[in-house]
């Protein structure tokens, strides 16, 4: 029988990409409208970052998150909402004076990083089990920070999606499950591939990481840039779920910018169906992720 495959659409991300593709959504209205359109195209989850409407750069403003969530809910869009908690862990230092933080650093407390989760109570939120070099900065998420964030999130019954970028991070995330820090009986992992300097976006890397997941895990994967769609196919073949969107890729093909998130979702649908599976509905995604059981357990 054909298998329902969850499509998550990462609407805009936090990287400075507006100048690279003018279709990148910036305002809460644009982000919400892109999520609604992605849902109609076949996505059952919208992964949300917000941006400063004036600068188009990443923001942590809780008011912006609230406006996006309110717009989606007031529109009656059933798409599952997945808010990021990634911002707040960026460290930039002077090479010759590493005790001096410089422009680009953005470090926040666990409470600050999950404030918008408490205020909006989305269906899911990310937890970046990730410390790695990224461009000219370091992404830092200490063991203590991750454990505190996980505890805060789980108190209100929001499902955690653990983002891991290499096998070491996968080991750490699995250890959090084994030690009961992550209490979800069916923990959700997102395998993030092709981001320098994490795991490469190859079938071999994805299979290696899949084979190291806890036996009770649910998982999805994505690749960035030109490898977005090959990684959709790989994840479907290997039994996982998928993610596409303008956070990860700005192009439809070489030199052809995507005019929005919808065409990326539509291509993912075609790939899934060509392999013999089908895109999961929102209700099917909710059942696969067991969201209702998780929420009830926290009440």
The shape, in one word, is: globular
| Name of the CATH first level | Alpha Beta
Spatially, the strands of the biggest sheet line up as: 2-3-6-9-12-13-14-15
Structural class: alpha/beta
Radius of gyration: 18 Å
**Average pLDDT taken over every residue:** 95
Q: State the helix count.
A: 10
Largest sheet properties: 8 strands, parallel, barrel
List segments where confidence is low: pLDDT < 50 over at least 5 consecutive residues. Answer: none
Distance from first to last alpha carbon:
36 Å
What does this 3D model show about the protein?
The protein is α/β, with parallel strands linked by helices and 299 residues long. It has a single domain (4-298), classed as Aldolase class I (TIM Barrel, Alpha-Beta Barrel). It is built from ten helices and 18 strands. It has helices at 28-41, 62-74, 110-120, 143-155, 167-178, 203-211, 228-237, 262-275, 282-289, 291-298, and strands at 4-5, 7-10, 45-48, 50-51, 58-59, 80-83, 89-91, 106-107, 124-128, 132-134, 137-139, 159-164, 188-193, 218-223, 241-244, 251-253, 256-257, 278-279. It has an eight-stranded parallel barrel with strand order 2-3-6-9-12-13-14-15, surrounded by eight helices. Strands 8-7-11-10 form a four-stranded antiparallel beta sheet, with no helix packed on it. Strands 1-18 form a two-stranded parallel ribbon. The radius of gyration is 18 Å and the shape is globular.
Helix-strand blueprint:
Blueprint: E1 4-5, E2 7-10, H1 28-41, E3 45-48, E4 50-51, E5 58-59, H2 62-74, E6 80-83, E7 89-91, E8 106-107, H3 110-120, E9 124-128, E10 132-134, E11 137-139, H4 143-155, E12 159-164, H5 167-178, E13 188-193, H6 203-211, E14 218-223, H7 228-237, E15 241-244, E16 251-253, E17 256-257, H8 262-275, E18 278-279, H9 282-289, H10 291-298
């Amino acid at each position: 029988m054909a298998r329902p495959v969850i499509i998550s659409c990462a609407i805009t991300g936090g990287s400075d990409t507006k100048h690279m593709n003018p279709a990148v959504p910036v305002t809460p209205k644009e982000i919400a409208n892109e999520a609604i359109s992605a849902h109609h195209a076949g996505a059952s989850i919208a992964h949300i970052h917000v941006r400063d409407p004036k600068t188009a750069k990443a923001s942590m403003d809780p008011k912006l998150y609230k406006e996006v969530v309110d717009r989606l809910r007031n529109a009656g869009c059933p798409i599952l909402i997945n808010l990021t908690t990634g911002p707040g862990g960026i460290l930039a230092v002077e090479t010759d004076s590493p005790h001096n933080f410089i422009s680009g650093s953005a470090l926040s407390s666990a409470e600050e990083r999950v404030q918008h989760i408490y205020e909006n109570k989305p269906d899911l939120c990310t937890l970046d089990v990730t410390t790695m070099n990224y461009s000219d900065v370091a992404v830092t998420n200490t063991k203590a920070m991750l454990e505190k964030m996980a505890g805060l999130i789980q108190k209100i019954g929001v499902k955690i999606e653990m983002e891991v970028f290499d096998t070491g991070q996968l080991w750490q995330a699995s250890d959090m499950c084994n030690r009961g820090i992550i209490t979800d009986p069916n923990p959700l992992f997102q395998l993030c591939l092709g981001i320098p300097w994490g795991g490469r976006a190859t079938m071999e890397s994805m299979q290696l990481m899949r084979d190291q997941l806890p036996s009770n895990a649910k998982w999805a994967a994505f690749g960035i840039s030109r490898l977005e769609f090959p990684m959709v196919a790989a994840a479907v073949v290997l039994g996982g779920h998928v993610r596409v969107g303008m956070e990860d890729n700005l192009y439809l093909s070489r030199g052809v910018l995507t005019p929005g998130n919808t065409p990326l979702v539509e291509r993912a649908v075609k790939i899934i169906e060509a392999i013999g599976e089908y895109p999961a509905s929102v209700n099917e995604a909710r059942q696969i992720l067991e969201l209702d059981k998780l929420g009830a357990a926290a009440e």
